[in-house]
Amino acid sequence: MATQLFEDIIFGPIRSRRLGISLGVNLLPTHGKVCSFDCIYCECGYNSERRGDKRLHTRSEVREALQHRLSTMKEAGEGLDVITFAGNGEPTLNPEFEQIISDTIELRNLYYPNVKISVLSNATRLKDDSVFRGLMLVDNNILKLDSAIDETFKLLNAPNISSYTVEEHIEGLKRFKGDFILQTMFVRGTHNGVELDNTTPEEVNAWLEVVKELNPKSIMIYTIDRDTPEKDLQKISPEEMREIARKAEALGYTVSVSC
After folding, report:
1. CB-CB contact of 34 with 54 (8 Å)
2. Which of the 8 DSSP states describes residue 68?
3. Domain covering 10-258, topology
4. pTM
């Protein structure tokens, strides 16, 4: 299967490897991709391949679509574990992100009061106070750090702003004072002729040092599960993933593994 976009504002529900029965919310274009990273493993493809419609969904459009889906699901007696903001790029790039989160909490409380709200974010916009406030409102603010080493960070995540460093990224994560879930993709392969592997002892040890510094409330680690724009990437074995998890667990963290 080739990389693909989410073609609706609301998608699913799907069974997420990490979150359970998840109803997705896409605040980004339905026929294009908008992201501050250009990750070589992104299931939506490279930014340059997805230059279609760039119009972001408005607050009113999202509220209407979400209310319709939740009310329909409730009437049908469908189960739901989580409402997840993900989609075609970085959800916090939507300028109405904070207001949309507030609307979602209101609708969640009306239709599925026990359901969690999650945001999958690459954590590039944490200096924006509105984004920070919006993320602090949700149950699970799941924030990305794929490597603590700048060279690997830039190779894996390819920030749109070339001067953006992993040190700057980590400083943004510190703003949460541990009140977030850390998410890390582990992968190896070759990109543009350069070998990469963020599972080496050097990489994992550097990552663990940052984990201790950030002190997240829990950790999610995963490896590739779908087609990726860079074709020369390899899935990490379950045994290796569990070994990385054990090292973080030895520091006192709860770690979920998807592989």
Report:
1. yes
2. H
3. TIM Barrel (3.20.20)
4. 0.93
